[in-house]
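Many introductory courses stop at the sequence. We go one step further.
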Amino acid sequence: MAQSLAIGGEWGGAVLFAVEHAPPRRKAFFGSFPQVGDGVGYFLSTGAFAAIALLGHDALVGWAWRIPFLLSAALVLVGLLIRSTMEESPEFEAARRAGGTVAQKQETPAVAVLRDAWRTWLLASGAFLITVGGYYIVVTFMSTYAVAHLGFTDAQAAGAGTAASVVVIVCTPLAALAADRFGLRRVTLTGILLHLVVAFPMFWLAESRSAAGLWLAMCLPMLASTIAYAAIGTLVAGWFTPPRTRCTGLSMSFQTAGLVGTLAPAATSWLFTTFDNSWTPVAVAFAGMALVSAVCLMRCRPAAGTAPAAPLAVDRPTETAAS
C-alpha cells in the first residue's frame, strides 16, 4: 500500500511528462512508455527469481530471496540520477511562464480535485481497478497457486511470469499505437472487456498442469491488461479540468485503485481457502473488477475543452511534494 501511494505520483507525472513531449498524433504511444517500464521491472524481477530458484526451494525461502531485493536498490539510484538531470518539458515551462504556478500556490491541486472533480476521481479510480488489481492477481496469486496447488516449481512459475512480462514490453506500445489510430476509449475498453473473456480460461489452462498451459494462463490475462493499460493514462488525463489539476487527478486516481488493488492477492487467497480451495470465486472476482472498470470508463467523459493536448502538468511541483 505504501508502494501504491509512492508510485501513484511517480506514474502520473511520468505519463504526463511523456505526453507533453509527444507529437499530436502519438500522444498514447508516448504516454505508454511508463507502462512498458512495468513490464521491464516485471521481467527483471521474475528473471532474477527464476535464476535464484535454480538453487532449490529451501535456499530460495531460506536466504536467496533477499538477493533480488538487494539488487533493486541499484534501481533506486538510477531513478535518482535520472530525476536530478531531467529538464521540465517545454509545455510545462510555457505554463509556468504564463503564471500557472502562481495560481497553484493559492490552493493545493488535491483540494481542488476533491472539491470540484470528486466524481471524475472516483470514476477514474474505478476505471483503473482491473489494470491494477487484475495485474496483482496474475502476478501474485497465479504464481502462488501454481506452486502451492498445481505442483509447479518456483522456477517454472517465475519462467511463466517472465514470459508474461515480455507480453507487456512488446504489446504495450503496439496497443498504444492502435489507440492513437482507433481511439483511446475504444482500445482501452476493449482491453478491459477482454478480462471478462479470459477470467475462467486462464484457470482452465493452469489446471492442465503443463508448462505451456501455465504460460498461457499468465500471458493471456496479461495481454488483456496490457491492452487496457497502454493508453488509459493518456485517456484519463483528459477527464480532469482545469488543466493544472490533471497531474494530481490522474495520480490520485491511480493511487486509489492501487490501494484497493494491492489487497487483491490477499482477498483472492482468502476467497480461495474459504471456498474449499476453489479458484471459481477468484475468477468471479477478477471478472467483477473488470465489470466495474468497464462501467466507470463508459460513464465518464472528458469535459469540453480538456483535450490532452492542453497544458497537462502545471500542478506537478505541488503534486510531487505531496506524494
